């Protein structure tokens, strides 16, 4: 806001460098910008709406989420990247947003790295109906042209070039061109002209795209500016860029505070080290596997608010979460629940379980990707946004396994008969640090992804629609904190994806066999008690641990050499119905079995 008001009010110190006679027509536009203190519902706000979304990475019109009504607010979407290379921002002229969906597109998209630069000043110039000084195209330096403003000379424009007071009369020899204008690409911009000021002010007095309502006293009251400000306590939120890590691995949490600016932050981390923090964006680690609740209280002199989240962070296990090598047919929903999923957009496309279809038998993982573009495509035809959804394996210990192969079956129909339009993909990736970082093994794209021809959404694959993929893995996955994941990236014609019979095969080393422990459960499913048959092998002592599906420990006890059976009273232990992993460790090896409690 300081930058905009400095430049639009001609208060920038660098007006002293204006050359070539343009000093006399450098204008104070008499246009003032303010952050709203009321949102469209009349709630307190600081004028900033913080949204976590993939749409910020390769942004376009589809990135314009959570826009506020354009007759009351100027929307500025600050993004991490723009789909068009080399573009720092863009905006539409008022007349170009008069179609039925224009109000959803109206405003400015700007790179976060260009926010405090002349680029935002430039793009708001377009929003206020100013063309580039050479005309309405984006081709600076291509041809001499006019912007329709009387006091800006004919010019080609200067692209990343600041010519100085000489050699700037390309179009009309002897007539200086206004290369220091905010609507040029010279990157030494310092001014608007009187004519540009008049054009912008005329735009704000015109009802095209409802610009004339923005400065009315009633709207100042509606948005909470110019003497109508309100203040309140902040509304806390937070996220982490590394939600999957190993025990005792440091990660950072980012405060994402809305409504008002916070002046203090109080964090509490369940099982964390440290247990609390007053940093805005603290670092923390966790020793125990599973999900950990994080609580943030943020406040200012108007008060404070608190938010708690149970499933933001999942710590991987220091043991294999599968018994032996992976063999997952997804024959029941309990098998699927042990596989973490990520729905980045928290939308209607997500990995789930299907009970009416499968490769060998009913039961498979299904991504309902046919819904990926329904809403976005209807609003912004031809957009390039790609949704992503992830399905990942449990943690595996593959230290003593060689010649490792990953295999799986999948089925997929395309919804287009144009090969170039099959832009969706299925990436197969692996991690050796519990899911903190990932390496690409294979990326199935285009025609490779299509196993069953062309079809409509919500199809059901038939027997011949399935295809197997077998991948030979390098020795890098011979690690004790291995995950694999399937990352689907949507396209304009996405369809449902089916995945089944995921297997890890290899040669198990002798060392692992010598360390083997055995465990079996009866009855399973259980109700009020369960008997556990066990063998510690050559070890003198061990530990029995019972974990819920989130990885939380619900029961643990020591096991002595010679003990062959344990009887657990589930009611006395207060174990509710659900899915549990029962793990037996002997110090050098471990085995895990799944228990269903009804």
What does this protein structure show overall?
This protein is mostly beta strands. The protein has four domains: 1-228, Collagenase (Catalytic Domain) (3-Layer(aba) Sandwich); 238-315, Sandwich (Immunoglobulin-like), CATH 2.60.40; 327-510, Jelly Rolls (Sandwich), CATH 2.60.120; 515-597, Immunoglobulin-like, CATH 2.60.40. The chain has eight helices and 30 strands. Strands 13, 15, 16, 18, 21 and 23 form a six-stranded antiparallel beta sheet that branches. A five-stranded mixed beta sheet has the order 5-12-11-7-9, with no helix packed on it. It has a five-stranded antiparallel beta sheet with strand order 14-17-22-19-20, with no helix packed on it. The longest helix is centred in the first third of the chain and has 10 residues, at 118-127. It is elongated. It starts with a helix and ends with a strand.
